[in-house]
Write a structure and sequence with these properties.
- With 206 residues, the chain is mainly α.
- The protein folds into two domains: 8-54, Arc Repressor Mutant, subunit A, CATH 1.10.10.60; 60-184, Orthogonal Bundle (Tetracycline Repressor, domain 2).
- It is 68% helix and 0% strand.
- Helix 9 packs across helix 10.
- The longest helix is centred in the middle third of the chain and has 24 residues, at 112-135.
- It is elongated and about 55 Å long.
- The chain starts with 7 loop residues before the first helix and ends in a 14-residue tail after the last helix.
- The relative contact order is 0.11.
- Mean pLDDT is 87; it is low at 1-5 and 191-206.
Length: 206
């Protein structure tokens, strides 16, 4: 069960996501969001600069979580092991707000402009992860490659988790996806013997 508690900001976020999914992002007004939350437009603007900030908040904990987890990962881990550790540490940021995260993904999936914004957010996370890896002593190319692989894996794992009818955890999906990435350069017979990587095109992507 989620531990997230709806304060004024949370009520506005919940109301906005419900309306975005019901009416569409463009058709929803700030006045409607505030009214649905039982608050005023002035209160909305105290918490959010505009409608998009509900989906892309400026106070995003993910960069700090990724940087801290990368810095404190065991020294013996290889680069992708560090990335796996950092992403799994970040998984609760999504999992504790699971219902809202799924609603948010549905809104973004329905809006190409918002999808571009989401890709920009992921690029910023990759830059954060690259810098954190460099601070561990990795050279620039290795750090950038490991970070980009990690964020690409997060994107795939996140989409699989959001659309997962079996309710696997995001952490499980991250492990599976990065394990699959490690096998991409293996000979075909080794890939075939890997335990159910589930990349056969049977699952939807948001």
């Amino acid at each position: 069960m989620s531990r997230w508690k709806p304060d004024a900001r949370g009520r506005l976020e919940k109301a906005a996501l419900e309306l975005y999914n019901h009416k569409g992002f463009d058709a929803t007004t700030v006045a409607e969001i505030a009214a649905r939350a039982g608050l005023t437009e002035r209160t909305f603007y105290r918490h959010f600069a505009d409608k998009r900030e509900v989906l892309f908040p400026s106070a995003n904990p993910l960069p700090d979580v990724l940087a801290d987890a990368t810095a404190t990962a065991p020294a013996t881990l290889p680069p992708l092991g560090v990335v796996t550790h950092a992403l799994i540490e970040a998984a609760p940021v999504y999992e504790e707000r699971e219902d809202l995260v799924r609603q948010r993904q549905a809104v973004i999936a329905a809006n190409p402009e918002l999808q571009e914004r989401e890709l920009a957010k992921l690029a910023a996370l990759a830059a954060t992860l690259t810098q954190a890896l460099r601070e561990r002593g990795l050279e620039t190319t290795t750090a950038a490659l490991a970070a980009e692989i990690g964020i690409a894996a997060l994107k795939v794992a996140y989409e699989r988790w959001v659309n997962d009818p079996d309710q696997h955890t995001l952490a499980q999906r991250i492990r599976e996806t990065l394990d699959a990435a490690r096998h991409l350069t293996a000979p075909p017979e080794h890939v075939a013997s890997t335990d159910d990587l589930s990349f056969t095109g049977q699952e939807g992507v948001a």
